[in-house]
Write the structure tokens for this entry.
Amino acid sequence: MRKTLGQNLIAYGIAGAIVWYAARGVAWSEVAAAASHATLWIFIAASVGGFLCWFLGETFLYSRLFSYFHGPTGAIELVPTMAAVYFLQIVNSYVASGAFVLFLHARKRAPWLMAGCTLLFQAYLDATLLAALALFAILLVPASPIRLGLSYAIGALGAACIIASYFLLWGARLSSGNWLRWIYERPSMASFRMAKPPQYIELMGIRLLIVLASGFALYGQFVSFHIGVSLAQTLALTPFIVAIGNSALSPGGIGTTQLVFTLAFARFATKESLLALSLAVTIFNFVVRIPLGLAMGAPIAEEAVEIESGFTPNYKVG
């Protein structure tokens, strides 16, 4: 537990340092003044709508993912685990993933490593989709700042295509002594082997709808702070916002959210306005996620923390 606490303190220290870096050269009085001019009801409406799209959309997404590879899983069954995940993301992103692994191990009898690889498969699909969306945004909105990530998007999409062709086409045809065939046959990689094009399409389609909803919610948040970013520019940059803001680089997106907003949208608004909005987004996430996790996912969250700390909890499988 001391190790986990130390890791969390380091993570929050890094997040605080990123916030300080993003806020350099801006007086906090200017940030407060920018926040005071925001239209609060528009911000709350956009933020609540975006959060519900994420929470409900991801609940359905992971219920379909687990149903494909670990047996029928209803969205209602997954709600407490999802609440725990959303709560734990503001504590430690890796512990948050442990709540999913715990669910699969305790409820679906999945081995630990296999459960982790199922989450890795979804992460692979997400990365593939975001890379494709980034390329699409660059083509449709050439003037978007996301154009700077063109080479990264091409590289990620190319790697994703190689991985897909490996598991869908030629991995099973390799000779038994080949090390690539050895990876293909690992029991933990069952989700990669079992997935077929219809599953790829459905899971990526659900994530696409979530990302689009996130883009519209982000545009509403810009409107609430009177920041003049067009809907097209907002949607074009949404894949980048989602990829960085929801990464494991910092707890709850603290720091990464501020850095992404102040850099990606620098030519559309003043730094103090962007910093004020990014801090409002981060605060909203904490205000919503903490009571949600405590009310619906506290037992699962406790077990996930115990697993990350090296303890083995007693499960009730049902």
